[in-house]
């Protein structure tokens, strides 16, 4: 990938956490990802969103943020478990050693919908 055409590249570690301290000209900069070192740009709509919600500028490249989210997903594998309420056998992505309460669809609907 070509490097973005920007006036400067700032390491993510140099960004202030306080969004109010981020100048408008960050739109002309690239931020260097704290994980990969890959530069990325902040667009106007993004900056407006972060300011509106008082969020800090991301320190990771969008591709890295996507990989981080994917790592939080359950594995694409099914396990046999028992419903924690009625004890029928069900298939779930939650491994047997995990602590979450697992319900079959019927018990889940009774619990959530009523």
Q: Roughly what is the average pLDDT, rounded to an integer?
A: 94
What portion of the residues fall into strands of 2 or more residues?
Answer: 15-25%
Dominant shape = elongated
Approximate helicity band: 10-25%
Q: Explain this structure to me?
A:
The chain is an alpha+beta fold and 114 residues long. It has two domains: 8-71, no CATH class; 79-112, no CATH class. The chain has three helices and five strands. The strands form two sheets. A three-stranded mixed sheet has the order 1-2-3, with no helix packed on it. Strands 4-5 form a two-stranded antiparallel ribbon. It is elongated, with a radius of gyration of 22 Å.
Comma- or semicolon-separated keywords:
3 helices; 2 domains; two-stranded antiparallel ribbon; alpha+beta; about 110 residues; three-stranded mixed sheet
Topology:
Elements: E1 8-11, E2 29-32, E3 39-40, H1 44-52, H2 62-71, E4 79-82, E5 89-92, H3 105-112
Parallel strand pairs: 1-2
Antiparallel strand pairs: 2-3, 4-5
Quickly describe the structure.
The protein has helices at residues 44-52, 62-71, 105-112; strands at residues 8-11, 29-32, 39-40, 79-82, 89-92.
């Amino acid at each position: 990938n070509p490097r973005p055409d920007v006036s400067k590249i700032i390491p993510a570690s140099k960004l202030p956490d306080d969004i109010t301290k981020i100048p408008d000209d960050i739109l002309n900069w690239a931020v260097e990802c704290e994980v990969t070192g890959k530069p990325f740009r902040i667009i106007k709509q993004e900056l407006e969103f972060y300011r509106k919600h008082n969020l800090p500028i991301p320190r990771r490249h969008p591709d890295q943020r996507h990989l981080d989210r994917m790592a939080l997903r359950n594995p694409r594998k099914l396990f046999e478990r028992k419903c924690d309420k009625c004890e029928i056998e069900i298939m779930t992505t939650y491994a047997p050693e995990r602590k979450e309460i697992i319900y079959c669809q019927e018990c889940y609907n009774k619990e959530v919908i009523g």
